[in-house]
Specification:
four-stranded antiparallel sheet, 7 strands, mainly beta, about 45% strand, three-stranded antiparallel sheet
């Protein structure tokens, strides 16, 4: 709670597994709320040439790319003008899969 300076509640918890040719779309009508997102990366080996990284944008400008690194916790504080998507996983990934847990906490 110190990160947001207010009490927070876990509002969603999901496990994702992405393979070659998987991706998510950037949805112009879906906005992130004021929230704290936690990404727990479980992928044992991932090369940046595979794609499949998280992209956070605001007003059509890329804010950050989050590349998968095994056994890491990434915290992202979002506002309503932020959107996110997963970049297309290309043929270089072959049989590699990206697995992570995504938690969302809101005030």
């Amino acid at each position: 709670t110190r990160l947001l300076h207010q009490p927070i509640t876990l509002t969603s918890a999901s496990v994702y597994k992405f393979h070659n040719r998987d991706y998510t779309l950037l949805n112009d009508t879906k906005h992130e709320n004021h929230a704290l997102h936690a990404i727990i990366e479980l992928t044992p080996h991932w090369d940046s040439s595979y794609g499949g990284y998280h992209v956070y944008t605001s007003h059509k400008k890329e804010l950050i790319r989050i590349y998968p690194v095994n056994n890491t916790l990434t915290l992202i504080k979002t506002t309503p003008d932020v959107r996110s998507y997963i970049k297309y996983i290309n043929h270089n990934a072959h049989t590699h899969a990206r697995t992570y847990i995504h938690l969302t906490f809101t005030p």
